[in-house]
Design goal:
Blueprint: H1 2-19, H2 30-56, H3 58-66, H4 68-90, H5 96-112, E1 127-131, H6 146-154, E2 180-182, E3 187-189, E4 194-196, E5 201-203, H7 208-236, H8 241-274, H9 278-282, H10 304-312, E6 318-322, H11 327-334, H12 339-343
Antiparallel strand pairs: 1-6, 2-3, 4-5
């Protein structure tokens, strides 16, 4: 009881000091402190795994002297993975409010200025592309122009759908299909996939591609590191027992990470090829606009090639809002494949 009475004022004083931190404003927010702690832990893990390898493995040092390109490639992948991690962590997932600002700012300009377009306003797949200018995102929303966003979102849903079904009760904004409110970020995210704790941000339309490249690089780095650990144990087993024990423990934890990363990479590759998100796949029966669509139908898929193009080549500063498929499109996707469909690459 005495120790608890002594520790409690110290803990309260520490919390008050962190909440009033003026030198590092990011530390005043508990969520940011937690995110920063996870990032430091992840960087530390990378340094520990690589540092112990170079500290214990004398053969690797000798190989570096004779074949410096081998170690240079490993270190290049090491630093590229960390850079990709921080780029993904600091990127925007694509917020609904940002797209709403872009629409309310651009539509009045488009109405006043005649523009000649090579494509019709509504494409065959029902997608609408809106370019976002960074300077426009800082402007305030104009109340009279919010109706343009409401009309745009309304056109993406089937006729007769109530506005209450796609209005966020937290942000009070109209959500286009595939958007969801994230309680961790307290914002609605376009094409919400999930909230990544390790990255400290949501994964959505704006940074899903960066996230896939990050887990791809992380998987390759872990595989390469695991091979180096196994090579060391084969050559130096039973020499120094405490070194072997440390290397074996690290190799076991690394193997678990490799299995998890491989499964995660395969899972997100499948989502990309079918144009789905984790949220849509896991909670499909709870999403109102997906309940009436058969489960074996990928409603937003435009074919493997088009899905890959939209995922990899469309810039993150462009928000793509996809309309729900019509009944005719659903029936077309339900039609079984024939030999002619295979020859004409219908799935692509």
């Amino acid at each position: 009881m005495m120790m608890e009475g002594i520790c409690r004022p110290v803990r309260d004083t520490w919390n008050q000091a962190m909440d009033r931190c003026y030198i590092f404003p990011c530390l005043s927010d508990p969520a940011r402190r937690s995110s920063l702690g996870l990032k430091l832990a992840l960087v530390t893990l990378h340094l520990v795994y690589a540092g112990i390898l170079f500290l214990f493995d004398g053969d690797l040092i000798e190989k570096t002297k004779s074949e410096p390109w081998y170690t240079a490639l490993y270190l290049l992948l090491f630093f590229a993975t960390l850079v990709q991690y921080f780029i993904t962590s600091g990127s925007s997932p694509g917020y609904v409010i940002d797209a709403m600002r872009a629409v309310t700012e651009k539509i009045p300009i488009i109405q006043k200025t005649p523009v000649t377009s090579k494509q019709p306003a509504s494409s065959k797949n029902g997608s609408l592309v809106i370019s976002v200018d960074g300077s426009q995102l800082e402007r305030n929303l104009l109340g009279n122009n919010t109706t343009s966003w409401s009309k745009l979102v309304m056109d993406m849903y089937p006729p007769g759908t109530s506005a209450r079904n796609w209005t966020c009760s937290y942000c009070n904004v109209e959500q286009p299909p595939r958007a969801k409110h994230c309680h961790d970020c307290d914002k609605c995210v376009l094409q919400f996939d999930h909230h990544c704790v390790w990255l400290g941000t949501c994964i959505g339309q704006g940074n899903h591609c960066r996230f896939w490249w990050y887990i791809c690089e992380e998987t390759a780095l872990c595989l390469w590191t695991g091979i180096l650990y196994i090579t060391y144990l084969k050559a130096n087993i039973s020499r120094v027992w405490w070194k072997d024990a440390i290397m074996i423990v690290l190799l076991i934890t690394l193997s678990i990470s490799i299995i998890f990363l491989l499964l995660l990479l395969l899972f997100h590759s499948y989502l990309i090829l079918t144009n789905q998100t984790t949220y849509e796949l896991v909670r499909r029966r709870r999403i109102p606009y997906l309940r009436g669509i058969p489960e074996r139908i990928y409603p937003f898929s435009k074919g493997i090639c088009r899905n890959l193009y939209n995922f990899c080549c469309v810039r993150s500063s462009i928000f793509i809002k996809e309309s729900l498929p019509t009944q005719q499109e659903i029936e077309e996707k339900l039609r079984p494949y024939t030999c002619y469909d295979v020859v004409t690459c219908r799935c692509c």
